[in-house]
Every structure is written in structure tokens, then in C-alpha cells.
Specification:
With 531 residues, this protein is mainly beta. It contains no helices and 33 strands. Strands 16, 17, 18, 19, 20, 21, 22, 23 and 24 form a 9-stranded antiparallel sheet that branches. Strands 25, 26, 27, 28, 29, 30, 31, 32 and 33 form a 9-stranded antiparallel sheet that branches. Strands 1-8-7-4-5 form a 5-stranded antiparallel sheet, with no helix packed on it. The radius of gyration is 37 Å and the shape is elongated.
Length: 531
């Protein structure tokens, strides 16, 4: 235990010099109190009880050592030097005081055990860190201090430390090392323990950069994760440990043969996704396999329509994070993807490999979207609902409360667009100020999507009375089959194609419908009627 307390004190300074100038004066008041005061205490192994102190601290001009035995006066030592004292057997509270040039003081207390018995009850703690590092600490009875040999050089000089200290060490390369800790007291007999550590250059996995709207994440600090029932089923052949690597949560599978991961209570609907991703790290992996299992339309395991497929990743790189991105189309046997409930990882050599796993997710690969084309119709022949090119009429809402879609207003290259995610259908209303399109000939909208398979446009006219639900409302829906993806599609639909839209003087609703239902994202721009 080390107890720190801050003391402001003054001591007499005697400065001898032939002369001084104004430029050589020191601002004593600006000097801060010493910090991080501590000391290492070692003892000779000859039953004499001779203890040597090596004090350390920051901003110290001189150290004062109160030996804590009530016999000897305090010892004084300069930074970088040591001082010795002979003790009888016992446990002593030694006070180390660091003093600055202006007399400010900071104290620390060290417990020093002096015994001529061999140390007993030695317990060591060797922890592997990240990026080739290891930390060592130890406790024992009857010991004064410890020495640690990290085992990476010949004729190694040990590192001394005391109980309560944590010693860090960085190895030059990955490998297997024997760490030896020796407990020493004032006699010749010692106690020691050795541990073999496998050192790696493991660091945190790379941070994903995909937009969250295009990801279904099972495990990643970068996203909100869906519910996963277990990351190790009871029928797995592997040991799971949750570890923190530089603040990044990671799954560690040791003795990996195979491990089952299940989301059975809430199967994953990946029908709109294009890829499966995971990051893996291993120092001994020779082969890695990924299996996905879909429970079929009924969503029940063993319900008769389960489908699965396994992908093999041969010879993944060792001691480096490997980002695995597998097109879902490569899982040929996975003919349905709307109820994925099992993910299985398999490692080789079987049962003799350790694999770290992070960033497990499905994602939708999209092309880079650019601004939509600029309309060229004269403004005198346009009634615009949404376009940066024209003055827009009043629109009550671009997403009614009864819509099944998420609306986001974006700017692409400075051009305002509407983004509808998870689009089933969305209602857009101008009921307060219905649009008189009787003088118009076409309805226009620009759409962009990476995943829609169908797009529909419905127009609703409120009839001659201009009242929604007034008895004379008319509507018609036009379907665009298999629109082009990853490019802006300019839809210019003759109003005559809206066959049932027999009146156009009070258009109060525009409805967009996307397919597959609820699993597509559509960008919208330049919504207008024109002649």
C-alpha cells in the first residue's frame, strides 16, 4: 500500500555564488510540488538485514527517507542515488519524502518486510496485454522484494519490484516465453515460480466504416447490435472468453473445433443484405469456415424448410486481423435469408486453435450515389412539389403517420434529396392545398436505389369537392417493374397512364411503394408535374 499526502513546507536554502544577474534568477513560487513519489527497497541475502532504498519521483531536488524503526535518523539522498539501512526482523512503514528547490514536499509510504525466513505463499500474476506486452505483479509472505526475468534475452539482468507494483514489459517479437518471478527475503533461501506466456502482436480490430443504415450487426462496438441468444451453444466445441482489447470488446474462442452462435428468439432478416462480414485474428489458424443457417419461411428450427451453406476460408493470414467479406450469393444453399438464426464458426487444426472474433454483421453493398440530374423543363410549365430547381408548392408532409418507411432529409453534393429506408409504402399529402394538375400532361420523379426490385407511384385526387373521403375521390397506381439500380432513374409518366384518375383538379395524395416490401432504400428528388 502506498499512501500519498501533499505537504507545503519551507527549508533553509543556502546558495553560494560569486555573483548573479537578473537573468539567472529562478521563480521559486512557480515550482510545483513533487509527483509520483515511490521507492524500491532491496535486501541483501546474508542475514544482516541490510536494506537499500532507491527513491524515485518527478520534480525532486532531494529525498528524505524516514526508516520507520524509531531508531535511526532519517537518511538523505539525491535523485538517482541510493541509501542503505540495517534493520532487525520486522515490518516497517518507511516514509519517502520528495522535496523541491522551494521547499514543497510530497510524501509516500512503503511497507518493508525484513525477514530471514524463506518467502512463502508466492502468488504471481502474469497478464498478456496487447501488441507484444505483458504485465507482472506478485504477493508473498516474508519477502522484501521480487525479481522478474522475462526470458527474451541471454544473461538477462532481472527487474526488481515490490509487492503492489505492476511491471510492464514489451517483447521484440511474437513467441513463447518463460517468465520467472523470484521472491527474496534477508536470507539465502528464495521462492520462485515460472509461467509460459504466448506473446502476440494482437491489437484492436479495425473499426467498420459502413453506414449503420446498411448494416445488421450481431457484434460490433461500431453499431447497435441485434439480439443474439448465445455466442456459444451448449453443443459447441470451444471455450469462449469475452476480452477487452484497447477498449474494444472482442470474442475469444480457444481450443476451437466449432462454435454455434444463435439468434433463435429473433431470427435475422437478411433478405435485403448483400454480404456477411467478420474480422478474425489468430496466430495458429490454418483454415476457417463460416456456416449460415436459415430456419425457412416458418422460422422454426427443424421445421422442414431449414437451409444452410458453409464457406471455407483457406489459409487465413496469421497474427493480423483478417477482414472476411463474403457475398451472400456465395452461400448457394442458403436459398432463403429472412430467418437466419444460426452462425457457426469452424477452426483448424481442430480443437487446437485460438481465434479472436469482432465486427460480425450483415451489410448491404451500395454504389456511390451522386446528385440527381438537373431538370430542364421551363418553370412556367412545371408544378413542383420537391426540387432545388423550381419554387415548390406547399406539401403538408413527406411522410404521413400511416406510412411504413423511415424518412431522412439529406444533401448529396449540395442537392437536397429525400431518403426512404425500410420502404414498404409512404404517403405524401397536399390535402390543405390540393394541386390542380388539369393543365399538366406528365408526372415526374427521379429515384435511386441499390436494392429495389419494383417501384409504384399512386396519385389520389380528392374530387370536385376537394375533400378527402368526400365520396368522389379517385386514384390510380402505376407500377415500374425491375427499375435499374445504382443509378438515377428518371420516371416521366403520362398522366393518361393513371387511367382511373379521371379528375386532376384536387390532387391531395402521392404514395410511393417499394419492393421487396420493407427491405429497400430509395432516394427521391425532382418531384413535379409538367406540361
Amino acid at each position: 500500500m502506498k499512501n500519498i499526502k501533499f505537504i507545503i513546507g519551507l527549508f533553509v536554502l543556502s546558495i553560494f555564488s560569486g555573483c548573479s544577474s537578473e537573468n539567472s534568477l529562478v521563480d521559486l513560487d512557480a515550482i510545483s510540488a513533487p509527483e509520483n513519489i515511490t521507492a524500491l527497497a532491496t535486501i541483501t541475502q546474508d542475514n544482516t538485514g541490510k536494506v537499500t532504498f532507491f527513491p524515485n519521483g518527478e520534480g525532486v531536488t532531494r529525498f528524505e527517507i524516514n526508516y520507520g524503526d524509531g531508531i535511526a535518523e532519517s537518511g538523505y539522498v539525491n535523485p538517482g542515488e541510493s541509501v542503505s539501512h540495517v534493520y532487525k526482523e520486522g515490518v516497517y512503514e518507511v516514509k519517502i519524502t520528495g522535496v523541491t528547490l522551494n521547499g514543497k514536499k510530497t510524501e509516500a509510504t512503503k511497507t518493508v518486510t525484513v525477514s530471514f525466513r524463506a518467502p512463502e505463499d508466492l502468488v504471481v500474476n502474469v497478464l498478456k496485454g496487447s501488441n507484444l506486452s505483458v504485465t507482472v505483479s506478485a504477493v508473498a509472505t516474508f519477502e522484501t522484494y521480487f525479481q522478474v526475468y522475462f526470458g527474451d534475452v541471454n544473461n538477462e539482468v532481472p527487474t526488481d519490484f515490490m509487492e503492489g507494483d505492476v511491471i510492464s514489459h514489451t517483447y521484440p517479437t511474437s513467441g513463447s516465453y518463460i517468465v520467472r518471478i523470484v521472491a527474496l527475503s534477508g536470507g539465502k533461501a528464495t521462492a520462485e515460480k515460472s509461467e509460459t506466456v504466448q506473446i502476440t502482436n494482437l491489437t484492436a480490430a479495425p473499426t467498420p466504416t459502413l453506414a449503420a443504415s446498411n448494416v445488421i450487426s450481431m457484434f460490433s462496438d461500431a453499431y447497435t447490435n441485434v439480439t443474439v441468444n448465445t455466442w456459444r451453444t451448449d453443443w459447441s466445441s470451444a471455450t469462449l472468453t469475452d476480452v477487452d482489447i484497447s477498449g474494444n470488446l472482442t470474442k475469444k474462442y480457444s481450443a476451437l473445433n466449432f462454435v454455434g452462435i444463435e439468434a433463435t428468439s429473433s431470427p435475422i432478416n437478411a433478405s435485403a443484405m448483400t454480404h456477411f462480414h467478420t474480422d478474425i485474428w489468430s496466430s495458429d489458424l490454418t483454415q476457417f469456415k463460416v456456416k449460415l443457417v436459415d430456419f425457412g419461411a416458418n422460422g422454426i428450427f427443424g421445421g422442414g424448410d431449414d437451409v444452410e451453406h458453409e464457406i471455407t476460408v483457406p489459409s487465413p493470414a496469421k497474427e493480423a486481423w483478417v477482414s472476411i467479406d463474403i457475398p451472400l450469393s456465395d452461400f448457394a444453399g442458403l436459398t432463403t435469408r429472412s430467418h437466419i438464426a444460426q452462425l457457426i464458426f469452424v477452426g483448424a487444426p481442430s480443437g487446437a486453435t485460438t481465434v479472436y472474433v469482432d465486427n460480425v454483421y450483415f451489410y448491404k453493398k451500395t454504389a456511390s450515389i451522386i446528385a440527381s440530374p438537373t431538370p430542364t423543363q421551363p418553370s412556367s410549365k412545371v408544378i413542383s412539389m420537391f426540387s432545388d430547381t423550381y419554387t415548390n408548392v406547399a406539401v403538408d408532409t413527406w411522410r404521413t403517420s400511416w406510412s411504413a418507411a423511415t424518412l431522412e432529409d439529406l444533401a448529396i453534393s449540395g442537392n437536397a434529396v429525400k431518403k426512404y429506408s425500410a420502404l414498404n409504402f409512404v404517403g405524401i399529402e397536399t390535402i390543405k392545398n390540393p394541386i390542380n394538375a388539369t393543365g399538366m400532361t406528365h408526372f415526374h420523379t427521379d429515384v435511386w436505389s441499390s436494392d429495389f426490385t419494383e417501384f409504384r407511384v399512386k396519385l389520389v385526387d380528392l374530387g370536385a369537392n376537394g375533400v378527402f373521403g368526400g365520396g368522389d375521390d379517385v386514384e390510380h397506381e402505376v407500377t415500374i417493374k425491375s427499375p435499374a439500380i445504382n443509378t438515377w432513374v428518371s420516371l416521366d409518366i403520362p398522366l393518361t397512364d393513371f387511367t382511373n384518375l379521371v379528375t386532376r383538379g384536387h390532387i391531395g395524395q402521392l404514395i410511393y411503394v417499394g419492393g421487396p416490401s420493407g427491405n429497400n432504400t430509395v432516394y427521391i428528388d425532382n418531384v413535379y408535374f409538367h406540361n
